[in-house]
Amino acid sequence: DDIGDIDPEEENSGTVSFTVDEDVDDNTYDMEIDVEGDDEHGAKHGERWEIDFDVEKKTHDIIIKSASISDEAVSCMRGDNSIQVKLINIGKKDEDEVSLYVKNTNLALDFEKEDLEIDEGDDYIKTISFTVPEDMKSGTYSIRVSAYYSGDEDDGVLGDMKDIDLTVSTCAVTEPTTPVTTPSDVTTTPSGDVEVTVPEDVLEEFGITETEEDKPFRQSAGFIVLLTVLVMGALGGVTVLVIYLVKGQ
What we know:
Transmembrane segments: 221-246
Protein name: CARDB domain-containing protein
Distance between the termini: 114 Å
Organism: marine sediment metagenome
Keywords: Membrane, Transmembrane, Transmembrane helix
CATH topology of the domain at 62-168: Immunoglobulin-like
Number of strands: 12
Order of helices and strands: EEEEEEEEEEEEHH
Shape: elongated
Radius of gyration: 45 Å
Oligomer: single chain
Structural class: mainly beta
Region (Disordered): 1-22
CATH architecture of the domain at 62-168: Sandwich
CATH class of the domain at 62-168: Mainly Beta
């Protein structure tokens, strides 16, 4: 670890963190501490210390090594789920009255396992199944995992406790797509021709009854009506033009 420059008569300090394995035995271990540095001329200086590092285990020490949910975030697919818990006895004494509890009221989860035997250095692994209701409201639900030794939750000693979270999300609903329909009075034939259906009241006004099906548009009564309307419109336009010219003279 680099603690920077140190001027004459100045003091500085650093912190070194390390982890002691859970299964290490009670004992005294040798530890070496080396300190070295360079002066302004590039010469190296240093010192080594040797200290005794004592490891003393507790007589009783039950810990929750891990606790995890199989599917910790659920949305549409709810239903069956599970929790896996691992306990370790890192104390000096074999335990024969270990109790494990996994609870959450909203999930109707109330698991308990008592009178477990876990020897020194051994572990215990348990998988607990539960169900997430389909109608469960969205939110985060905390599940409490606790381990006791020398008895149960009423008369034993709490060894360790952890909370693990289950997240329930609202299921997203996809809006149905509205199909686009073609107007019933306009159709396109395979050949590319456009067929127009003339309303029956218009046909009746001209005294025409459509009786034949699948007739080409140019041969249909609808075409005759449409052509008649166009001709009458053209004649009307010519009449107006003639009147205008006569008045102009």
